[in-house]
User: What shape does this take?
Amino acid sequence: MAGSDLATDASSAPDTVKILIAGGFGVGKTTLVGSVSEIVPLRTEEPLTMAGLGVDDLDGIEEKRATTVALDFGRITISRELVLYLFGTPGQQRFWFMWNDLALGALGAVVLVDVRRPECSFAAIDFFERRGIPFVVGVNGFHGEHPYPPGDIREALALPEHVRVLLCDARDRESCRDVLIALIDQLIASAVQA
Assistant: This one.
């Protein structure tokens, strides 16, 4: 292949954007990455064991049988010019040390919230606010239910007005796509204002 052909190939490579999918333990991060990824997602799930009893809080998620111990990875091609790489974070506190490494190079994040356990969301929100990483909040409707409107959730989580709050279902590809589009729109709007 001639040198000029290599330059042409390199210039036509798509831009890639790293997005984190974050939130507390059992909020649906692995499910979201899997439902929206165009490739078979990389998952680092392991079964919950007796060793986690007393460490992992299963209140409200007693049916949970496995957990992410490192990350989830998926990919979405938006266009020939843009590809999103999705990195799902582990949810248990003992794995939070990995979030700093996963956040390197991330342009934005989706913080998933389970309204049955909103306290699980505060650490993720704080993480992105402290680092100045833009994020949107996706309220995962477990069993297809959304008992609270976005405004009530914004108030309960003390979110500023510029943070979008969207109702979603982590099992539904279109619903997850809409949350990601809202984040991309926010990132583009911020870049235009800068």
